[in-house]
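User: Please fill in residues for this 259-position structure.
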């Protein structure tokens, strides 16, 4: 942050120095009789700067949102894969592992999502259930190569689930950096102050146009705020993938039970 501030101040000093020194060296015919050109230049620069910063921040927030959604889907798919393999294991391991996977998925929906939204953290109960499920799969013992293969496949699927959950832990804490917040705030203030600094005359038309400018700026900032945290606020990553996993569990049990 300190380096960025130093560079910004140095650039401002350099720009002012170039302007003052250049004014002494340039022909008098190049000079304007007023500073309207400077106001136009600052206005164009303010619009370009604000647009570029907003676009950059929106891309970052959207990428974070998409990554969070991808990790959620990966976690749910891993659970379904593990459940499918566990359903062909011998009893009593089959029933125990299936029950733990169902319990974990329910806890993700009923506990993880509300806690991420309200408290910015994941449910320790759900984490304990997942750890217990992995321990249950690890504890499966058999000399049958088929069961051994099923155990290995289930462990591999649960490893993906654990990694995706870890990614989800990181995703819910992601936010745009403080420097970008400062730059965004600076661009907003610069853009809103431009009509004043440019000497625009107050009239009903200028007031309405300035109000519309505020609407655009405020709407852009609001959308950034909504996308900033993928699991909190208004626009959040859905737990639909886990809802589908629960439905898939029932289908797996139904199909194999009819065979």
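Assistant: Residues filled in for all 259 positions:
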């Amino acid at each position: 942050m300190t380096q960025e501030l130093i560079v910004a101040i140095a650039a401002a000093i350099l720009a002012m120095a170039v302007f003052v020194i250049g004014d002494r060296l340039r022909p008098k015919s190049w000079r304007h009789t007023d500073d309207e050109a400077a106001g136009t230049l600052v206005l164009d620069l303010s619009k370009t700067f604000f647009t570029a910063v907003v676009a950059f921040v929106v891309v970052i927030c959207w990428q974070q949102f998409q990554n969070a959604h991808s990790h959620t889907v990966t976690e749910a798919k891993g659970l379904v894969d593990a459940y499918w393999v566990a359903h062909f294991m011998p009893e009593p391991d089959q029933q125990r592992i299936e029950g733990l996977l169902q319990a974990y998925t329910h806890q993700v929906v009923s506990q993880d999502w509300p806690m991420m939204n309200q408290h910015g953290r994941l449910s320790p109960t759900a984490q304990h259930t997942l750890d217990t499920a992995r321990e249950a799969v690890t504890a499966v013992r058999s000399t049958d190569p088929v069961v051994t293969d099923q155990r290995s496949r289930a462990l591999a699927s649960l490893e993906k689930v654990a990694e995706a959950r870890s990614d989800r832990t990181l995703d819910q804490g992601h936010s745009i950096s403080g420097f970008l917040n400062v730059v965004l705030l600076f661009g907003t203030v610069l853009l809103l102050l431009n009509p004043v600094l440019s000497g625009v005359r107050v009239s009903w038309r200028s007031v309405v146009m300035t109000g519309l400018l505020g609407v655009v700026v405020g709407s852009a900032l609001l959308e950034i705020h909504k996308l900033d945290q993928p699991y909190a606020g208004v626009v959040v990553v859905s737990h639909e993938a886990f809802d589908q996993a629960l439905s898939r569990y029932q289908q797996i049990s139904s199909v194999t039970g009819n065979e």
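For context: Helices lie at 2-25, 36-86, 93-119, 124-138, 145-171, 178-197, 204-228, 240-258.
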